[in-house]
Specification:
By secondary structure, this protein is an alpha+beta fold. The protein is 37% helix and 16% strand. A five-stranded antiparallel sheet has the order 1-2-3-5-4, with helices on one face. Helix 1 (8-58) packs across helix 4. The model has no long low-confidence stretch (mean pLDDT 87).
């Protein structure tokens, strides 16, 4: 008996099945990337809103509040800095930055604890913090910008989507900026070293 080969129809069916499998894999990768980008955007928005509500209630930014230990239950000296109070100058200096999540959490504006604000994005740990523009890694904001929300270790794709959805899509201009001019997935600029959104 002579071995029978594949017919053109059988080969076409195999190619269609392979195409469907590849399409599902690419779509699921795209959906995961989009969900990561949306999670970062939501975290930045939530932090900005929590800071605005804190300022409305207390008259100061979290971290910068000079009398936090007497006004916010649970904020005690040594909990986030030596005094856990800020200087009230309207800027979240580098020394005040660790107290931002502490003040927000103890005042009831965020959940999750008093430590750094982080998101797990696949194999990356993204850190989000509020800091004065003068203490930020992003040096290109105008001096009229007093404070920013910094995002560290953000994937290139998430960084591009964040800038496109919240600003002008250019890392060098507008209210969302980065320490790099551009990035490409899988290169030395991925993840993006630091991004920042003006408050």
């Amino acid at each position: 008996m002579t071995p029978r080969g594949f017919t053109l129809i059988e080969l076409a069916i195999v190619l269609v099945v392979i195409g469907i499998i590849m399409g599902v894999i690419l779509t699921s990768t795209s959906l995961i990337g989009t969900s990561h980008s949306q999670a970062v955007q939501a975290a930045v928005k939530d932090l900005a809103e929590a800071m605005a509500r804190f300022r409305e209630r207390y008259g100061y930014l979290p971290g910068d509040m000079p009398n936090a230990t007497t006004q916010i239950p649970g904020v005690v000296a040594g909990s986030c800095s030596m005094t856990a109070n800020g200087n009230g100058d309207g800027q979240i200096d580098a020394a005040e930055m660790p107290c931002v999540p502490n003040h927000l959490f103890n005042a009831g504006f965020i959940r999750g604890g008093t430590g750094a604000i982080t998101l797990v994005q696949g194999d990356k740990l993204v850190t989000i913090r509020a800091v004065a523009r003068s203490a930020s890694a992003i040096t290109t904001f105008p001096t009229s910008t007093r404070n920013v929300i910094e995002i560290w270790n953000l994937s290139c794709r998430a960084a591009q989507e964040l800038d496109s959805k919240t600003d002008d899509g250019n890392f060098a201009t507008g209210n969302t900026r980065a320490t790099v001019a551009s990035c490409v997935d899988g290169t030395t600029n991925d993840p993006v070293p630091t991004m920042a959104v003006a408050l």
